[in-house]
Specification:
- The chain has eleven helices and 14 strands.
- With 385 residues, it is of the alpha+beta class.
- Helix 8 packs parallel to helix 11, helix 9 packs parallel to helix 10 and helix 10 packs antiparallel against helix 11.
Length: 385
Amino acid sequence: MSKKDITCNTLHTTTTHPPRSSSHSTIGNHPDTWKQLFNAMQDPVLVVTPDGTIIEANNATLLAARKSRDEVVGSGICKIVHGGRWPHIKCPLEEFLKTCSPKVEETRLPGLNGEYSFTISPVMEPGGKLDKIMLIARELTRDESRKMDSIRTAKLAAIGELAAGVAHEINNPITGIINFSQILLDNYKLDQSGRDIVHKIIKEGDRIASTTHNLLSFSRAETHERQPVNPVSIIKESLTLVQHQLKKEGITIKTCYPEKDHLIIANFQQLQQVLVNLISNSRYALNARYPGYHPEKKIDITYQYHENIKFPMVTIVVKDYGTGLPQSLLERLFEPFFTTKAPGEGTGLGLSISYGILKDHGGDLKVNSILDKYTEIIMELPAGI
């Protein structure tokens, strides 16, 4: 996740005695005036304790978070700013409050889709003890957001090049291991215990070979033929592959298509791979939140055509109402080997490969999520015809 340097200002609570004739004395002697000034600020402002509990928030914060004052004051900063977190995942903002590091991560207020940077100002008592901390949020401009997107894209491209190099280096020796193991089985007399061991070597070798293949896919080292395809056909055929499993688990699918068909220039199998992977992730999140039947155990798939200023685009949105994701993890979802699933349940390459495929098609893959509410993944692709 990207980071942004900020100024970590230290405020000391000291008592001053301006002349009675000064206009400042009028403000200072009326707490209600300070409250009015606090609430008049257009940017969200929060005051928290060192452990991250919110003790004050202005009206702009309540508006951005779409919550009442009673819901905000007394809550943890992570719950209001990120929408919450999982017990095993540290909140970067909470960690920052403990150390007052000179850097802070860009983050989001869950009520809005925009990104924010937070200026953190520790408020110290006269003796130097940390009393409370003030956070002022500023929404990043469009140019700043584009700059951050460019940095993320460049970072993933660098990771892709590294992944391709590692995959090539691993591929040759693992192929040798599998072949030599097969020679042992074919040409040497082994007892049953020995044969079992060699079979296990081949099985694990095949698993490594599969991982290197996925790394090459992520690095976009493979080329595939493209032709005009209908996104609706991709969605329908993808659902055909998974509909039996979805029905078995009590998951309902709702689809929405435009009245007019539009074509895109793409590789049908690659986009089908992306869509099946997104549906699989939604299945996992829904089953984790609702092990049995539930009316909200559903996936919405929406396909739309957009007349953009530069060129027309199509979007395919896969939205589920499962566990959701902490906001602090969203920027890491496309990193290879990063997974939110339990150990042994995911390789962390599915979304990385999907991101690479979309980028290779001239499109993009985006994610929005609120913990314990929903997750939506947006596939953006240029329209072909």
